[in-house]
Amino acid sequence: MTRRTAIVVVSLAAALPRLLVVALERDELIGSLPEKSDRFARTLVDSGTFGFIAGVPSGYTQPLYALFLTPLYAAFGHSWAAVGLAQVAVATGTALLVYAIGCRIATRGVGVVAALLSTLHPYLVWHDVHVNREILDGFLAALLTLLVVIATERASVRIAAAAGVATGLAILGNTRLTLLPLALAGYLLWTISPRRSGALAALALVVVTGVVVAPWIARNAVVMGCATITTDARAMWKANNPATFEILRRGGWIDQVPELPGAPPWPELAADRTAGGKPTAIDECAQMRFYRGEVLHFWRTEPGEKARLSAQATWMLWRPSVTVEGGESDGTASRLARNVFEPLYVLALYALALAGLGRLPRRYLGLTLLLLGYGTVMAIVFAGTVRYRAPWDFLLCVPAAMTLARAHAALGARAGKESTS
Fold first, then answer.
1. How far, in Å, CA of 404 to CA of 229, rounded?
2. Could you tell me which residues come within 8 angstroms of residue 42 by beta carbon, excluding any fewer than 6 positions away?
3. How many domains are contained in the chain?
4. Would you call 251 helix, strand, or coil by DSSP?
């Protein structure tokens, strides 16, 4: 397969199923999943305020996805077609990045198969075209992985700096990645020789990541009064309190955790009350510190319960079935995809990936384990669900593709022997 043919095959495999979902879902693409970024983007377009309502700035979400939606809404209005097509383009770009990773690690054939495995993930085919910030998580995860691989191969400080840009953007889309630059810096120190080059590459990645993230932190420091990426510590509290375990065990989600008695209204509720004619002022920074304190208190006073939550989060992150968190349509086809096709796909991917891990180059195996391990640790700290893992499943697709390539070669050799006998 030529390079051009490979790119066409991967692009069509990514785009066509998602375009079909866009055509079928249409009005369900916007609003079927709860996403604060959608509201922030609409408010920013209408009033110039990054917040829930005009004139009241907020830091209650990670900014990247809202800033991605803003030009779409400014140009086309609150349009399902614009969002769906834009996110199909992003998903196609992600598949091409996975193809490039596979080519770097192994061969063009492995790259094509890895890209096909990653982009035809049943959950992602549906989820990618709905309003959700994980579409950018997956793209930036693949981009920073590719750049780190190239930086390691070339011992390049410049490419490591580019990886820092991708990592900084990823943090602005997902605050759980805040410590990832340090993990990647350690990886570059381990893999790049001579050590001086490794140290410079690691420093470049960390510094550039900081440069990318710093303007948003400065904005929150000036406008909100606290230097942070997001003021939403309440989400962390919902994932770390005595009620969480049972709610998740029953199939619910952390949004169903009961509110603390006497707690102030959270920013979205305060904005709704204000918009409804009952002005409600809050201090987001004070609220952030309050819920952060509640989380730390829970960890100190109930370590056994936190241990139970950690085990539960790990299982929820890696289990093959989809956690229903609201927004999924409940038709027969949807239930079949969620309850049959998705688990079968993930179990097959796990088996193929485990069989192929030993065939990965040592350095890429280390990077794969580092990134998957980091995601697992963050799930332990926060919460686990398939939508947090799925954007990173491409890491498993490369060793899975190598397993399939080996099986194909073995079958070819066997057929050749039989034809000559």
1. 42
2. 73, 78
3. 1
4. coil
